[in-house]
Amino acid sequence: MAHELVIKARILQAGAFRTICIGIDNGRISAVQAELKGEKEFHFENYLAMPGGVDIHTHMREPGFTNKEDFYTGTMSAAFGGTTTILDMPNTIPATDNAIAFQEKLELASEKANVDFGLFAQLADIDEIAKMAPMAIGFKLFMADTTSASSVDSPPEILLTSRHMVGKVVTVHAEDPGQFSNDECTDLHRHNLIRNMKAESEAVKTILAIDTPAKINLAHLTTRECVYMAQRNKSSFELTPHHILLDESMDLGAQGKVNPPLRKRPVVDKLFNVMKTGRAIIASDHAPHTLEEKSGDFAATPSGIPGVETRIPLMLALAEKGLVKHQAVQDMCCQLPADLFDLKKGRIEPGYDADLAFYDLQNMVKIDGQKLHSKARWTPFEGFGAIFPVGVMLRGNMIIRGGKLVMEKTGRNLTV
User: Could you tell me the CA-to-CA distances from 190 to 16, 95, 138, 149 in Å, in that order?
Assistant: First the structure.
């Protein structure tokens, strides 16, 4: 029997590189074998084929902030970085904390998305939670104010014990504002002192002490201590490339301002070692602002950095330098995030979506913010080594080829 499409490429299996044939039918992987026949065949033996990346923490900024990003540009940026699935956070204007706003945002994303997507709803009102639960990929809980988001008025215990939380992923921005200092925020060092590590650890303790039917996922942890607390509780957690690679001493100015803040180098090094184990989810927390906004007074500058396009390329460059295993990169950027949300993505196995990204591991380049596809056109990773995909496939269709987006607006809502 001939498959609709057969791709011959190198893949990672149990940590080893192996040349294999991938059979694809009806947009899904139907076979993975040494030899297969296809009505159409692609030969990519010189490239590593990885599952399309799954980024479970992005801010596409639409509606309300389309001068910074929108679903078209943000998902295009994701695709050029080898990510074929994004989950979008609710702190837009209006916030997706009610069913009407959620439905309106869903329609916008459905019209524009270049990769598959899911939308988070914001935990705010018990009555609205019930209405949004069938549509939402998960819920977001802000424990402290951050860019375009306010902490909830209701105690987290009330929201997290709702019957509508059964089986739902709740991603938590864990910072306790009661621990923040009142220093003037003049630079990255002061920002770190104000939104300090104790604020993060106390918030994590509070959340993990709640008996909830939800699956708690701790966003953008910055310390090994908080990671250990999550692991003891068997909660999932995210690490970001910026928290494992950047620190407060770097000459980044407001381009490095993010919540929670960049920490001191010894703290970053310990977090990097956690990442090397391969048991974390790597999420970008893609949160673009304009270069003009990031060039003003530090205290008034909004927190957040773009990162959806550089997430996997940065990690693959680390692997090529021998700083982390290639299999760990694939697990953390593809399989683990997909598994958390029970998505048929993130693996090159029969029954999974034929989302693939092809990489020439010999082609490491220096990141140039002007060449990225987000509206931001800047990055705190300027000049860092990265390996970008030479081609990207979404459900069996090539969407990135020859450095161009060749199929657009084919993204689907994951909750349908």
Answer: 45, 29, 33, 22
